[in-house]
Design brief:
Blueprint lengths: L2 E3 L11 E6 L6 H16 L3 E7 L9 H9 L5 E5 L3 H4 L3 H12 L1 E7 L12 H11 L2 E5 L3 E2 L2 E2 L2 H9 L3 H8 L4 E7 L4 H4 L5 E3 L11 E9 L6 E9 L6 E7 L10 E11 L7 H21 L5
Parallel strand pairs: 1-4, 2-3, 2-5, 3-4, 5-6
Antiparallel strand pairs: 7-8, 9-10, 9-14, 10-13, 11-12, 11-14, 12-13
Length: 302
């Protein structure tokens, strides 16, 4: 069971450690390679594994809680969550490196190929090679993973999501992309026209994929059952707010207040401006047909 500590400070450890560091946004396949290496190195060398998770200041694929949970699943012993504050990113590389030794009994450090830390990113590979030898610390530099000849990265995943390339994003994530939040009341227009929707309360600073209509699966609460759905992401015509709402096929229960996890599977179409309720109904019927046809062909998604 991983232990999460929300402070950059000394902790009482009975053994020396192997440490890895990163923002780990999305915990994609490249991150997974680095984290699994850290876990395996710790096991082979009778060390404790530590992942230092640096909170992002801007928009993220997943929130810090979700990223932390993904890291837990990989078997890391300790997750140290650090706010990206001035006292952290203005610290000299030597000072930061020394604190890793002081706070966490670091014996080995594992980093990605382009990782750098400290003021002005001065803690680069050249620094690590030299200073780690002075301090008697081992270093492992893990090479990138590629997908379609390009490096797997959080930014490349966001690019795919921005262009409706869900399958490519999923390949790089190593799991199905999801967006989660609490189900809240909407304007009830969908219910009035026979297409009730579960409206998602959009978390702060979460990246929003390309606006439009998607074939999707949804999970309600912490249950395991997945429901087929038609999901809309876009700006409401009524209050001009951004909305993520799912019409769950063949479903009629009241689920307000529960957590909803939406798994996007395929981009169906762009948002289209409509001029009447009848046009909306006609459009939704076409969308529903396409989504049902998608699931007939893609039974493996379930």
């Amino acid at each position: 069971m991983s232990k999460v500590i929300n402070e950059f400070c000394h902790i009482d450890l009975k053994k020396e450690t192997v440490v890895t560091i990163g923002k780990f946004d999305g915990v994609h396949k490249g991150h997974q390679k680095l984290l699994k290496y850290t876990v395996n190195y710790a096991k082979k060398n009778n060390l404790i594994s530590i992942a230092i998770l640096i909170k992002k200041r801007n928009v993220s694929i997943y929130n810090i809680e979700e990223n932390t949970n993904f890291i837990k699943e990989l078997g890391i012993d300790y997750i140290i969550v650090i706010d990206f504050l001035p006292e952290f990113y203005t610290m000299e590389a030597k000072e930061f490196f020394n604190k890793l030794i002081e706070y966490y009994r670091m014996k080995h450090i594992a980093v990605g190929f382009d990782f750098a830390f400290g003021r002005n990113r001065e803690g680069n590979r050249e620094f690590l090679d030299k200073y780690s030898k002075e301090r008697g610390i081992g270093v492992s530099v893990i090479k990138f993973l590629n997908y379609k000849k390009n490096r797997i990265s959080s930014s490349s995943i966001r690019d795919c999501l921005s262009n409706g390339k869900i399958k490519d994003a999923n390949k790089m994530l190593g799991r199905k992309y999801t967006i989660s939040g609490k189900i809240v009341h909407g304007n009830a227009l969908g219910r009035k026209i026979g297409y009730p929707t579960a409206n998602l309360e959009i978390p702060n600073n979460i990246f929003i994929p390309k606006m439009g209509v998607y074939s999707s699966l949804v999970k309600i609460g912490n249950g395991d059952k997945l429901y087929k759905a038609l999901t809309f992401i876009g700006i409401s015509n009524i209050n001009k707010e951004l909305r993520v709402e799912s019409h769950i096929l063949d479903f009629s229960k009241m689920i307000y207040g529960k957590k909803l996890t939406v798994m996007l599977l395929k981009y169906v179409r762009d948002n289209i401006k409509v001029n009447s309720i009848e046009e909306v109904k006609l459009l939704l019927k076409k969308d529903e047909y396409k989504v049902r046809e998608f699931f007939k062909k893609e039974k493996k998604c379930l």
